Amino acid sequence: PGVLIVAVDGPAAAGKGTLAKNLASSLGLPHLDTGLLYRATARRMLDAGLSPEQDDGAAEAAALRPEDLARPDLRVPEIDRGASAVARQPGVRAALLERQRAFAQAAGGVLDGRDIGTVVFPDATVKLFVTASPRTRAERRLRQLHGDAAGADEALLEQTAQELAARDAQDAARAVSPLRKADDAVVLETDRLDADAVLARALEIVRERE
Ligand code: C5P
């Protein structure tokens, strides 16, 4: 048998990152947050005075250096939108594809993103598709960014839910590698589950398939 590869896909702020990190440490595997690759590419374009919408210079920006991924300013609204824009470009996706495959080829890994189970590792050992309602996802995103009080602010919740929905719609509608559940992925609906419960359920699924 080959190495153990776990694909974790789903819409924005559904809890993919937390689950992937916890799964990787439970299984002793490396973890790759693939969204960070798109975020760092968008950051480089903006820093170079380029629009993340344009394809001129985009594939070059996707040739990321280690320091591009270590930047502290990759989780801001401007980069949420910029990452989703660069992610539509075939040249960017092609440039990042090999890097993602190389990451897990030798020793396996847990990768979270939008197209891991459909495109990056269509033969992954386990494919999980993590979802939650728009309301839950908006609450989680606000708590993560601004603390518990922000998760109770109705106006902010409404605005955040709209931003997440716009990004999901763009990610699902694009021509290349759209956000989509792989046919053989297991759906993990996390509205009523905390991080530990999601991890426990995911570990059961991994054990059934490895
Ligand atoms: O996961 P995260 O929210 O950090 O991803 C940022 C953006 O990067 C997503 O909205 C999506 O457009 C893009 N992305 C992608 N494919 C992946 C991971 C992220 O297109 N595998």
UniProtKB/TrEMBL annotation:
Its EC number is 2.7.4.25. GO terms for cellular component: cytoplasm. GO terms for biological process: pyrimidine nucleotide metabolic process. It comes from the Bacteria. It catalyses: CMP + ATP = CDP + ADP; dCMP + ATP = dCDP + ADP. Residues 6-207 form the Cytidylate kinase domain. Pfam families: Cytidylate_kin. Keywords: ATP-binding, Cytoplasm, Kinase, Nucleotide-binding, Transferase. GO terms for molecular function: ATP binding; CMP kinase activity; dCMP kinase activity. ATP binds at G10, P11, A12, A13, A14, G15, K16, G17, T18. It is an enzyme of class 2 (transferase). It is found in: Cytoplasm. Belongs to the cytidylate kinase family. Type 1 subfamily. NCBIfam families: cmk. This is Cytidylate kinase. It comes from Tanticharoenia sakaeratensis NBRC 103193.
